[in-house]
Amino acid sequence: MMDNDSTLCRSAGVPHRQGSTSRRQFLATAGAGFGAVALQGMMAESLDAASFVAAPGGHHPATAKSVIFLFMEGGPSQLDTFDRKPLLNQLAGKPLPSSFREPLTAMGEKNSPLLASKRKWARYGESGLEISDWFPHVAQHADDLAIIRSCYGEGINHSGGCNLMNTGSILGGRPSLGAWVSYGLGTENADLPAFVVMKDENKPGTNGVRSWGQGFLPATYQGTPVGDTPNGEAIANLALPKGVDTERQLRKLELIRKINESHATRLPNVSDLEARIESYELAYRMQSAAPEAVDLSRETGETLDLYGLNDKRTKNFGRICLLARRMVERGVRFIQLFSGTGSGWDAHSGIEGNHTKFCGSVDQPISALLTDLRRRGLLDQTLVVWGGEFGRTPMSEKGDGRDHNPTGFTMWMAGGGVRGGQVIGATDELSLYAIEDRAHVHDIHASILHLMGLDRLKLSYNYQGRLERPTVNEGKMIEKLMA
User: Fold this and answer.
1) Nearest to 152 by CA among 479, 480, 475, 483
2) Quick check: helix, strand or coil at residue 166?
3) Which domains does the chain have, with CATH numbers?
4) Rounded distance, CA 378 to CA 416, Å?
5) Residue 18: pLDDT band by 50, 70, 90 thresholds?
6) What beta strand segments (E) does 34-116 contain?
7) How, if at all, do strands 66-72 and 334-339 pair?
8) Is the pTM of this model over 0.90?
9) Residue 182: which residues within 8 A CB-CB, separation 6 or more?
10) d(CA 370, CA 25)
11) How confident is the model at residue 262 (pLDDT cuts 50, 70, 90)?
12) Is 82 helix (H, G, I), strand (E, B) or coil?
């Protein structure tokens, strides 16, 4: 951690770097303070061009310029939201049929009685997609949704499941999907990060920063948290700390310049210094761009109401959905929004109360996001993804809850070149296993990358002599997604 002395912070009157001014000259003359976001570059690994194969501009024409990943942390129940199973209620209270038990026994699952779904369902839009009464607002966008009912993975607990959904592996240490996207495509706005993370609550989530970390990629590619600071700042340490004046900052920057030049002279082939300096420059530019990007006072009252910012239930998630739209407008590549920060959707008991709360907190904001993107002409170029780390079982737990289910769950996508108004794949009659057009998490990732113009096999990074790829050499594009 960096204290105020070691945090580079703003001072006034510093011109933007122009012309042939070098980075080192910039650091020598700038009386600027650089926020905690600069820390992302402080420990960057070498950016030697020989060490990676990125894809400036992409590998093929993209249908999406940006991604907004709506991550429901804890695992939402697919069979109470987007995957209706009439047989479940017919068999409620009875043991799971023997034909379903063998794989569960191998995973150590208990054979609890089946738990009925209390939801009411209706068909929406010209497509007639079935959606439950927990998502009445999102249901109005049925013709934009591609509901993938056949997702599966190996993450049986929250840590492994979140790792898999965010990084492609149940084990920690790999780059997050957002890091791969920003590494492969860079940013459309040099004044803002390419990868932004926002949470509905200011508390640690499952796995913490590993969910949006850079893994073995250079540190400049990890996600930048926005709106997650103890003192309420949108981005930590962008402002000048108390007790630090311009003169002190200039002395600090001069010392840094001398140290960097000394290292650069001694180690001419080590380019992590360039990555570090780039992060300083980004932090400086953010001092003017970031406050404007997160300033909701510029939004109309109608827009604030649309996102539910005047309702206690929807205020938190509505705020970050609105910020996500503002980020997309400003060229941010990958925005990940966390609902239920800290496994809030994990309904081992009392699923009715749990999901009523969390569905109620995200339904209107997500609907508003889709509406707002469309009316601003941004939905066609913005891929919106919804889902959690896994789904829930048809069997009961603790009488009125559901356990984790990684073997068959639902996600949906909209915008960004996706053909809406369709269901892709299917689970069995109790929504326990994916059985038709099965989509592994690697397939989900491969599809997101493809829509962004990136080939999962061509996007690679040479780490310790091995070419690493975002989907661990697995996965394929889900062709039915394409419009």
Assistant:
1) 475
2) helix
3) 1-54+236-293 (no CATH), 63-218+298-481 (3.40.720.10)
4) 9
5) very low
6) 52-53, 66-72
7) parallel
8) no
9) 193, 194, 195, 221, 333, 334
10) 45
11) confident
12) coil
